[in-house]
Amino acid sequence: MSLVKTIKMLCDERKVTFAEVEREIAISNGQIRRWDNASPKSETLSKVADYFHVSTDFLLGRTDQRYLDLKNTTESDADKKLHEIISRLDEVDKELLIASIENTLLLAKQLAKKM
Q1: pLDDT class for 109, splitting at 50, 70, 90?
Q2: CA pair distance 27, 31, nearest whole angstrom
Q3: For residues 53 and 68, is the Cβ–Cβ distance under 8 A?
Q4: Where does residue 45 rank: exposed (0-12), middle (13-18), buried (19+ CB within 10 A)?
Q5: Is residue 48 classed exposed, middle or buried when 0-12, 13-18 and 19+ CB atoms within 10 A define those classes?
Q6: What residues does 67 pair with on adjacent strands?
Q7: Which residues contact 19 (CB under 8 A, 6 or more apart)?
Q8: How far apart are CA 85 and CA 76, in angstroms?
Q9: 55-82 in b/e burial notation, b at 16+ Cβ within 10 A?
Q10: Considering the entire predicted model, what is its pTM?
């Protein structure tokens, strides 16, 4: 599958358009479509991969393994990745994420007490 088709598939799954992705990662309008005829810069390809939480190898069709392998990352790598993800969220989504984490921790504590 071509790079553009792979990105289209990921967009469809997330219910976003190329234009929304381009705005979110701060690349020019129509840039993704142009990759049918030209290769993206590695930095830009990495931004797209980070946006969809997939590897660049997956985007390029070099592997079927979609998700990043965090098993061999250091705490610093994981911290950096989490920071990148959070930095892309707007303020409302950040608040929702914090509330979700707090509720999950509360539920986990309640379940642990029952054991």
Answers
A1: confident
A2: 7
A3: yes
A4: middle
A5: buried
A6: 54
A7: 29
A8: 14
A9: bbebbbeeeeeeebeeeeeeeeeeeeee
A10: 0.59
Q: What is the pLDDT of residues 6-43, one digit of tens each?
A: 999 999 999 999 999 999 999 999 999 999 999 999 99
Quick one: pLDDT at residue 73?
63
Cα separation of 26 and 42, whole Å?
15
- Considering the segment(s) 3-59 as one domain, its CATH architecture is Orthogonal Bundle (1.10)
For residue 42, give the 3-state DSSP assignment.
helix
DSSP label at residue 64: S
| 70 SS3 class | coil
Domain residue extents for the chain: 3-59, 75-114
